[in-house]
Amino acid sequence: MSGPDARAAILGSVRRALGRGPLDEAARAALDERLARPAPNLVPARAALPQEERVALFTAMAEGVFATVDRVSGAAAVPGAVADYLAQQNLPPALAMAPDPALDAYPWADRPMLSIRRGAAEEADRVAVTGAVMGFAETGTLMMASGPEHPSTLNFLPETHVVVLPAERIGGSYEEGWAHLRAKGAEEGGEGGDGTGGFMPRTVNLVTGPSRTADIEQTITLGAHGPRRLHIVIVDGEAP
Amino acid sequence: METTSRTFPANARAGLADAALQTSLARFQGGFQVKRAEAAGRLPEFEALRDEARAIKDHTLAHLDHYLERYEAQVTAAGGTVHWCETPADARETILSLCKETGARTVTKSKSMIAEEMALNPFLEEHGIEPIETDLGEYVVQLADERPSHIIAPAVHKTRDQVADLFHEKHSPLGLTRRLDRVEELVEEARHVLRPRYLAADVGITGANFLIAETGSSAVVTNEGNADLTQILPRVHIVIATLEKVVPTLEDATTIMRVLARSATGQEFSTYTTVSTGPRRPGDADGPEAYHVVLLDNGRSRMLGSEFRDVLRCIKCGACMNHCPVYGAVGGHAYGWVYPGPVGAVLTPNLIGLEEARHLPNASSFCGRCEEVCPMRIPLPAMMRTLREQEFSRRLGPAGMRAGIGAWAWLVRRPALYRLATGIAIRLLGAMGRRRGRFARLPLAGGWTDVRDMPAPEGATFHALWRKGRRA
After folding, report:
1. What is the pTM of this model?
2. ipTM metric
C-alpha cells in the first residue's frame, strides 16, 4: 500500500510499536519546542581557537585532504592569485564564475587575459570560480549554498573548482554554519530559528577537499566524478 | 531482492576457496581498522559523541511518529512530496510511476541500500527504464551483474585486475579498447563513460543518510560527488529512505555525521555532505524541478516494537563488518542478502525472516568487536544471541543440532552432574592425548578437527582450577 492509506497505516504501526496512541498536546509542544530552538550538541573543542589559529587549522585540515590553499592580502590581489594558479596548473584562463555580487568586488579586469562567463556550469567548462558561505576549521570544510548567486553545478561539473573565501568567514564548527543560515533566513524572510525550516537553501554543500574514490583496492584516487582540484584562495583584509 | 542466505554454510565455503576474494579481503580489513582507530584517537570527544549520537537516535525512535509528521510537513512546505510506502513493492511502483510521469528513459542512481532492499534496478529494467549506478563501486558491481558485498565499499571483493578485465570487456564496444592497468586510469575511464550519462538522465535517485524533521531536508554523504551530479542535473530528484533515517534538527544530524565518516573510512569528514530541501527555487539556474521522497517502512515499524529496536539506530557506516573476523574470512556475498556482516546478521532475519536467514546469527565468534566499534553502540552480539534462542525455540535448526543443544542445556542446569561429567571427560582426554599433546581427530568434534588439531587438556577443568584459586 502507498499513499494516504499507507501513511495512516505506517503511523498507526509506529504508535502500536511504541505502545501508545498519538502524543498528547503537551508532549507534542515539548518536541516542537526542541525543533524550534535547535541547540548545538557537544561541539569538539578542536576549533575553538583565536581567529588566526583557526585560519591556520582550516588551512592544515584542507591541505590534509588534498585541497590547495593560497592566502592573499586584500581584494586587489585575488584576480592575480587565480590567474597564477591556472597558469601553474596549465589550465586555460577561462572561468565559469558564480553570478555572485561579492565576487564583483575583485578587480578581474586587471587581468584581461582571464575570460569570464557568469552563470551555471556547462559541460565544457573546465574551471569554476565561486565564493563560499563559510569555512569550518574543524575539518577544513567549505559550506556553499545554492541560489541565484551560486548555481550548484559550479561545485561539481568543472574539473577545477577555485573558491575565494574572505578569512573572516572561516569559523570553527559546522554548527556556526547552521546558525548563520537561520539568521540570514530570519533577516530575509522573517523565517528561521522558528522551527519552520524556511531558511534552508535548496542545496547546502559541505565540501571537504576534491572528489575522490577508494573503491578499487582502497587506493585513494582524486577526481572520481566531481572536481579533481579544489583550490581555496583565502583573502585577508576588508571584505568586499 | 532474491536471497541465498539459506545456503550460508556453502556460500562461506565458496568464499574461503576463492583466492581473488581472499586477496581482496586481506587487504581491505587491515586498512579500515587502522584508519578508524587513528581517526577516533585524533578526536578526544569521540566516545562522548558516540553517546550523544545514540541518545539522539533513541529520542527520535521513541517519538518517531511525531518527527515523521513534522518532516513530511516541512518537505511539503518546501515544495516537495513525501510518498509513504509500506512494502518494497509499493516503493518500486511509486518510483516507476514517478519515472513514467516524467517520461524517463534513463535514471542515474547514487548508492542506496534501500534500493537494494527493493531490488529496484531489475524492476526498472523490466519496465524499459535504464538505471545507471554512479558510485564507482556500485558501477563495477552493476557492470559485473553482481551485488554489493559491502555497504560502503560495494566492490571490495574485486581486485584491480578483475576490474580492469571487466572494464575492458564492457567498455570496448564504446571504443575504449585498451586494457588499463592502473587504478587512476580505471577511475578516469569510469568518469569519462559516466559523465554523459549524468547529463542525459531524466531522473536522479539518491539514498539518504539523514532526513531532517526541522527543515524537511534530506542529507547524503559521498566522497565522489556522484550523489550531487545525480541530483542537480536531472529534472526530477527522488530520495529513497526508510523511516528510521529521520533526526530532529540539523545539529542532531551534525553530531551523528561526526562519528559516521570516522567510523566508516577513518576520514575526518566525508568529502561531500549535501543537504537538499525541495526542488529548484525561483531564480535558481540549476537544480531539479521536482523533489520526491519515497519513505519506506519495510518492517521498520515492526522492529520498533520488538527487542531489536536498537538496531534501527544503525547509520550504515560498515564499521561492524570492517572489524568482523567472520566477514573478513568469507566476504559479504556469503550472507546472501543486502546487508552483510554483524548488522546483516541482525537485520536480515528481521527483514526476510529467520527461516531464510537462521544461519547468519550463528556466523559469529562473539568476539564483540562489532559492538565495540559501532558508533551507535548497537548491542549486536546480544541481538544475535536472541536470534539464536529464537532459532532454537522455533525449532528452525536441524533435529540433531536441536537435540544436542537440548542435551547440553539439560546438563549445564545440573552443576554437580556437569562438574562430574566434565571432570571425567577432561581426565580421559588428557590421558588419551598425553603422548602427542593434541588430537588430529575426535568423535563429535569433526567441525573442529577437520581443519585443525584439538589441543589435549592438561590437568583439571577451569571450574576446578578456579576453586583452587589459580585464577591468573
Report:
1. 0.95
2. 0.96
